[in-house]
Amino acid sequence: MTGPHPDIAAVRVAVRRALKPTGRDGLVLVACSGGPDSLALAGAAAFAAPRLGLRVGGVTVDHGLQDGSAERAARVAAALRGLGLHPVETAAVTVDGPGGPEGAARTARYAALDRAAEAHQAAAVLLGHTRDDQAETVLLRLARGSGARSLAGMAARNGRYLRPFLDLDRGTVHRAAALMGLDHWDDPHNADPAYARSRVRGEALPVLERVLGPGIAEALARSAALLRDDADALDAMAAAALERARTADGVDGAELAALPRAVRTRVLRRFAIDAGCPPGALGVRHVTELERLVTDWRGQAHVDLPGGLRGRRAGDGRIGIAR
């Protein structure tokens, strides 16, 4: 008796490894758009989760951005039920707000997934991002001049979210979906040059492969993993440094001045967020100006920060943030 095709085996093993630390007797949800990546994930989870003592359900999000999206979401839900997933939920969302269409859709999608996970008390939500998605993410963030934490890309485990396929290339996952007989939907947005990720996928990465040789996606994903280790270590150092530097109503500027800059800027960012600055609005420019209160103070009255807050330096060198 022969085993499953190597591509099917690869996606099943990846899901099993991701779910193994979850424990038994819980529910995990697969986020499924109906594309080949997430359908392969659903098929692999339907096989692997019960063997670990886990129940597996599914969620498909209808962003309402295209004609017929509700009908398509219903077909995806039916496909998930056909794989034996239960419960299966269709979540309709409204896409608006800051960040452009891609950012707004992402925000709405994760909010819907969070609501579903909480409603069903799911132990984890599985996402179908592949190594190629990771490479695209790294390139997009590199183009924005992001720091090490952003360039570390997507984490395989981030709270309730698990990404079992980050070590698998897109080709392997797509072949697995086809071999499992899963009829997928090709989202036209994935090939629309109006979207930055589509341009990276269809133009930038192929050019890099042609000019620099094959293996670019793998190399970018490997770099992201290395940067994630560095960022984790620096974040841990910054957390400890912040606790040492805290005073009754601020942080000790002398303590911060003695830190390496990579740690100091992380301390100031965390301090600002703890004080009430919205993380998404707190940029490098704000943190740099806060740092100048520590290392280049020339009598500045204050630093304006997101959320209506201001950073100030007291006469004793203490840094405070308040309205």
Task: Record keyword descriptors for this entry.
11 strands, Uridine Diphospho-n-acetylenolpyruvylglucosamine Reductase, domain 3, five-stranded antiparallel beta sheet, 323 residues, Rossmann fold, six-stranded mixed beta sheet, alpha/beta
Descriptive overview:
With 323 residues, the protein is of the alpha/beta class. It has helices at 6-19, 36-51, 69-82, 100-119, 131-143, 148-151, 170-179, 196-212, 216-245, 253-257, 261-274, 284-295; strands at 27-31, 55-62, 88-92, 124-126, 157-158, 161-162, 246-247, 250-252, 303-305, 309-313, 318-322. The protein folds into two domains: 6-212, HUPs (Rossmann fold), CATH 3.40.50.620; 248-322, Uridine Diphospho-n-acetylenolpyruvylglucosamine Reductase, domain 3 (2-Layer Sandwich). Helix content is 52%, strand content 13%. The strands form two sheets. A six-stranded mixed beta sheet has the order 3-2-1-4-6-5, sandwiched between helices. Strands 7-8-11-10-9 form a five-stranded antiparallel beta sheet. It is elongated.
Which percent range describes the beta-strand content? 5-15%
Q: Number of helix segments?
A: 12
Overall morphology = elongated
What is the number of strand segments? 11
Report the span from N to C terminus.
70 Å
- In sequence order, what are the helices and strands, one letter per element? HEHEHEHEHHEEHHHEEHHHEEE
Q: Within the CATH hierarchy, at the fold level, what is the topology of the largest domain?
A: Rossmann fold
Strand order of the largest sheet: 3-2-1-4-6-5
Number of domains: 2
Condensed summary:
With 323 residues, this protein is an alpha/beta fold. It is built from 12 helices and 11 strands.
